[in-house]
Every structure is written in C-alpha cells, then in structure tokens.
Write a structure and sequence with these properties.
- There is one protein chain.
- By secondary structure, the protein is largely without helices or strands.
- It has one domain: 3 Solenoid (Pectate Lyase C-like), CATH 2.160.20.80.
- The chain contains one helix and no strands.
- The N and C termini lie far apart (30 Å).
- The model has no long low-confidence stretch (mean pLDDT 95).
Length: 112
C-alpha cells in the first residue's frame, strides 16, 4: 500500500470508527503526529523515520514493522504487539509501553 492510500485508509477508518488496516503500508517519513491508530493492523508496515509523536497505538499490531529512527515520543503503545519490530534508533522517551509485546524486537540504539 503506498503512502497516499495508507493516509486515506487512516482518514476513513477514523471517520467510520473502525480499526485501520495498514498491513505492509509504505509510510517512510510520514507525519502522523497525534494520529489515532488504536487497534490498527500495521503488520510489516514501513514506518522508518515516521513522526508518531503522541500517536495512539493502543493495541495496534506492529508485528515485523520497520520503525527504525521513528519518533514515538509520548506515543501510547499500551498493549501493542511489536513482535519482531525494528525499533533501532527510535525515540521512545515518554512512550507508554505497558503490556506491549516486544519479543524479538530490535531496540539497538533506541532512546527510552
């Protein structure tokens, strides 16, 4: 899914009060500050260097997602599935990771 389609899916999901399906979405460098992505399926999504500052990713599925260098400062990742996600160099200061699954996640150089 390209960036334009992915952003449209987010907009539609919010307006229709449903969980966004962004499986494999290409969102490199996307500006998603404060986005409501609660429960979204972001399996295998490319979010390298994306700005997810203060985004709501509660119970989102980020299995195998590429989040290297992403800005997740003050993001809500409560109950999120980050199994096998690449968070190398990601900014996670103030992020809520309560109940998040991090098995196999790459946190090398991540700033917690």
């Amino acid at each position: 899914m390209n960036k334009k389609s992915a952003l449209l899916e987010i907009k539609n999901a919010v307006s229709e009060k449903r969980r966004a399906d962004l499986t494999g979405a290409e969102l490199t460098g996307a500006k998603l500050t404060g986005a409501d992505l609660a429960g979204a399926n972001l399996t295998g999504a490319d979010l390298i260097r994306a700005n997810l500052n203060r985004a709501d990713l509660t119970e989102a599925n980020l299995t195998g997602a590429a989040l290297a260098g992403a800005d997740l400062i003050r993001a809500n990742l409560t109950g999120a599935n980050l199994t096998g996600a690449d968070l190398a160099g990601a900014e996670l200061a103030g992020a809520d990771l309560a109940g998040a699954e991090l098995a196999g996640a790459n946190l090398a150089g991540a700033k917690l």
